[in-house]
Amino acid sequence: MIEHTGSYQNQPGPYFGPYGGRWMPESLIAALEEVERTFTEAREDPEFIARLQDLFTNYVNRPSLLTEVPRFAADTPGVRVFLKREDLNHTGSHKINNVIGQALLAQRMGKTRLIAETGAGQHGVATATAAALFGMECTVYMGEVDTQRQALNVARMEMLGAEVVAVTTGARTLKDAINDALRDWVASVDTTHYLLGTVTGPAPFPAMVRYFHSVIGEEAREQVLAQTGRLPDAVCACVGGGSNAMGIFHGFLDDPGVELYGLEAGGEGMDTGRHAASINLGRTGVLHGARTYLMQDEDGQTVDSHSISAGLDYPAVGPEHAWLHDTGRATYEPVTDTECMDAFQRLCRTEGIVPAIESSHALAGALRLARRWTDEGLVGPDTPEDEQKIIVVNLSGRGDKDVATAAKYFGMLPDAETPAGGDAEAVAARPEGAQS
Amino acid sequence: MSETVNTVHSRTADAIEAARAAGRTALIGYLPAGYPTVQDSIEAAVALGNNGADVIEIGIPYSDPVMDGPVIQAATSQVLADGFRIDSVFDIVKAVSARTDAVVLVMTYWNIVDRMGVHTFARRLSEAGGAGIITPDLVPEEAGDWFEASDRYGLDRVFLTAPSSTDERIKLVVGSSRGFVYGVSVMGVTGARTEVSSAAEQVVARAHAAGAPRVAVGLGISRPEHIREIGRYADGAIVGTALVSALRDGGPAAVGTLTAELATGAVRDGADA
User: Fold this and answer.
1) What confidence tens digit (pLDDT) does each residue in B31-57 have?
2) Residues of chain A whose pLDDT is less than 50?
3) ipTM (interface pTM)
4) Can you spell out the DSSP letters for A44-59?
5) B 67-126 near A (Cβ less than 8 A)
6) Residue A352: CB partners within 8 Å, gap ≥ 6?
7) What's the gap in Å between the CA of A232 and the closest CA on chain B?
8) What is the pTM of this model?
9) Nearest chain A residue to B86, by CA
10) B2 or A320, which is more confident?
11) Which residues contact A434 (CB under 8 A, 6 or more apart)?
12) Catalytic residue among A333, A396, A401, A408
């Protein structure tokens, strides 16, 4: 446990306690310094801020709604659940906030090409979108495994004019896509900005990506105050690299009465080793430029992560989350694929909202918390309104991209289309009565 | 930092200076530990040392080698898939040190060292006869523990400088390194290239100007004529991918043959061969 007194907000990096830093090849240090300089100047430049806000309002569709979901929360009377609707942003997730911000910085630096890594495809789609909007070239690195799992998102990026490179090195997933993007950047840094998609990586990325997503927490705080007259008791967000969670947490970091929950991908269960819950595994090291918690073996080799959601399938986590964990300011819990898909289906059926599978981990975390409060006798049917508990969940993305995965999981596809390979495991893991 | 540079005797510096005294550009060769097997990686490194290399880099296979191109990636991925364990690195270093006069360094991505603990790693490397570590993804700002451990165990610290490095950073890298400074010749990853980058000479000149007594050039060097060209301005030439390709295609004997050929390029104009 690390002692921390004073404000948690606006941590500048490069270090967050013992985490973060810049563990990178020397060849890239000059570029990172340039990005940092440009970002530091831009955030103080009223013109830049005005441009960003204009795009947020008139292109991204901000502010996103805060929607109460009473039917979703009906099993735990006395608990009110609100969703921060990042799923309603242009391109369907929170990812666009950071992409618009960094693309503006790239333009400011005179770069003409954007490169990005993507897992599920959401960050790749958002980057391809910004490249089209700003007239830049775009190359997206995507693990070969993910290009097969998310073939429609590959087509979507190509429609937007991006080149998608299927990464065939290493485990062929998100971490390997980051490796190949870094290899590209080393050779192309004069013309190219690496638009990293989450709060990991070398400084200044963790603090910079958080900055562009902090609008989520600022809006949510204002909206929940306006709708309920008080702050929430808890905020839940899913954590892969952790960008949507940092975005919403940031607004509440200095409200000590608001509990912060980061839900990691527990995959098939912590005891199976097939998960992506880096913090809960508890081993620190350095990967992709930052000291943080990461999934590694005894020798320090990165271990493959597993999650039903490609977007959380990353074997490390942003360094600021590692620090928030160690300070005790935020709590990180694993959610299994099964719990996640139960919550996914519940939101579909009770509220008419199809969430991203990533975000469904946060929904499951909220349900678990509500049950815990109920079991502890803190809330119940007779709880007076002003003593009811309030949870805000960051609904970081919509589930359109996940329809095929979910349909397979719930056995909704005709037998002939029963998937092969990795997806067969999802079918095998289908809970009894899931179709009811 | 200059104080510690002076208090630890650098075996790598000795090897490079001995080459210079003999009229040669120091030849530095890279091979991955455990490729294609632990035993053959020892034989290959011995062949490297006994056919003209002054310094041998034993690369530790790592799951996320962001500075490596396809040839080295393919080799190290295979080693990892075959179940390679870090412990055998020290066995390899020990065996190679015993069988050649070349100085043996380890080249490793930092998480491998971090996981074992930098002091334990340094102690074991020193006990095995290794002379130091080349750290492709560690910059001096993050190397506090490594400074301490390398001084304690008398190991060399080889940091990298790149064409993109600012003067300020070159000064930092030069002041932090012991043994030699690794000049990255191109903005890119490892891999054989047909010509030596025009940026290489500038990289070396800037490091020398910042006070580096020894600068070796790496990335893209695969032929004797590359080494001859580099020898006009640099103190050493580093070959990696070409040796790994030779090992892949022809085994340890091919490494010996290629090294002998590369060594002809290391003889400086006017020196007795």
Assistant:
1) 999 999 999 999 999 999 999 999 999
2) 418-436
3) 0.94
4) T-HHHHHHHHHHIIII
5) 67, 69, 73, 77, 80, 85-86, 110-116
6) none
7) 39
8) 0.94
9) A299
10) A320
11) A341, A345, A409, A410, A411
12) A396
